[in-house]
Amino acid sequence: MVLKVSTRGEVPPFIVMDVMREANAMEAAGEHVLHMEVGQPGTGAPQGVVDAVRRTVGIQTLGYTDAFGMPELRSRIAQHYSDWYDVQVDPGNVVVTTGSSGAFVLSFLAAFDSGDSVALASPGYPAYRNILTALGISVVDIPVGPKSNFQLTAPLLEALQASRERPLDGLIVASPSNPTGTMLNPEELDALAVYCEREGIRLVSDEIYHGITFGVTARTALATSDQAIVINSFSKYFSMTGWRLGWMIVPGDLLRAVECLGQNLFISPPTVSQVAGVAAFDCADELEENIRRYAANRALLLEELPKAGLHDLASSDGAFYIYADVGHLTNDSAVFCRRMLRETGIAATPGTDFDPSRGQRYVRFSFAGETIVMEQVASRLRDWLA
């Protein structure tokens, strides 16, 4: 007898993880690989975080916390919004999660039903699309490009809504975005938030790259709307990817639903990681040093990539990515990235991970690593593409 296998798992892979697996295999075989594929900081957790965990482990009993997280951490996160954005957040609306990935699962389950429609920009983070699809939620791609700085605009959203027989149920925005690093200007974010409230569209704002910006300041959707779901993470700015700790700011009408889902799906976020999260807010000096390194890496690549023939680059206002148009070199970015890895040792992610329809002409480079790696990448690319 053949046993049933759920169709929920029939989603595309997260291609960047496939690239990383091949790159790691090459490294294990003794080859020198330059990692530009994965969006994670090249540095570990700040020293203050490490010290706090050392003081805790072996002394405290690290049992479950409340499903919403430790009160001290929720209060520190609420204070963070006052300090960074001059926005007042009630700690009772703060939900600590198992990474931003846990926050996406909880928010999508709480806000949308199977058969609902959620719009998002393409290119965009592939896990949005794949989680929604696995949950039976219809994904509505809105193609964006250089004309709108690879970001959604209120007119684009209005035009989509007008063309549909059934209104949208949700919208996901990300600023800074993955893979392009582009940002919504404050006025455009406000316009989108106001439109969503007026039309009854649940706005989900992915703000996990806040703090990593270059010459501009990120705005939280909470500055305009108290109905938006805001998601953030300790993985990027706080340099704590492996700790699997994130958070969400949840409007009151969703709190109980999120709590019940969280209790059943996760019980609670990792306690030791929550202890680390409290300490992370006191490590600004070390974290800002990381941002200065990202800025130097970005400046180097924006100068050197055109010398290798890569001229059409997204603006990269934030995060640590450069999204490069390679359409003059290939019509298959996946094949291009495999060749580049095998022939140069440079691991990068094909655009098809982020844009199923147009990503074959784009490649994403992550500049979260050491500056010397960026220099080596620039040199190898110049030689290879010459």
Write the layout of secondary structure elements.
Layout (H helix, E strand, L loop, with lengths): L14 H14 L5 E2 L11 H10 L14 H15 L8 E4 L1 H13 L5 E6 L3 H9 L3 E6 L10 H10 L6 E5 L11 H14 L2 E5 L22 E5 L12 E4 L5 H11 L5 H10 L3 H21 L16 E5 L7 H12 L1 E2 L1 E2 L11 E5 L4 H15 L1
Parallel strand pairs: 1-10, 3-4, 3-5, 5-6, 6-7
Antiparallel strand pairs: 2-8, 7-8, 9-12, 11-12
Helix pairs in contact: 2-9, 3-9, 4-5, 4-8, 10-12
Strand content: 5-15%
Low-confidence segments: none
User: Termini distance?
Assistant: 57 Å
Mean pLDDT: 95
**Total tally of structural domains:** 2
Q: In CATH, what is the class of the largest domain? A: Alpha Beta
Say which CATH homologous superfamily of the largest domain is assigned.
Answer: Type I PLP-dependent aspartate aminotransferase-like (Major domain)
Give a short summary of the structure.
This protein has 386 residues and is an alpha/beta fold.
How would you sum up this structure, described in words?
The protein is of the alpha/beta class and 386 residues long. It has 2 domains: 7-44 and 284-385, 3-Layer(aba) Sandwich (Aspartate Aminotransferase, domain 2), CATH 3.40.640.10; 47-280, Type I PLP-dependent aspartate aminotransferase-like (Major domain) (Aspartate Aminotransferase, domain 2), CATH 3.40.640. The protein has helices at residues 15-28, 47-56, 71-85, 99-111, 126-134, 154-163, 186-199, 255-265, 271-280, 284-304, 333-344, 371-385; strands spanning 34-35, 94-97, 117-122, 138-143, 170-174, 202-206, 229-233, 246-249, 321-325, 346-347, 349-350, 362-366. The protein has a 7-stranded mixed sheet, with helices on both faces. Helix 4 (99-111) packs across helix 5 (126-134), helix 4 (99-111) crosses helix 8 and helix 10 (284-304) runs parallel beside helix 12. The longest helix is centred in the last third of the chain and has 21 residues, at 284-304. It is globular and about 60 Å long. The termini are far apart. The model has no long low-confidence stretch (mean pLDDT 95).
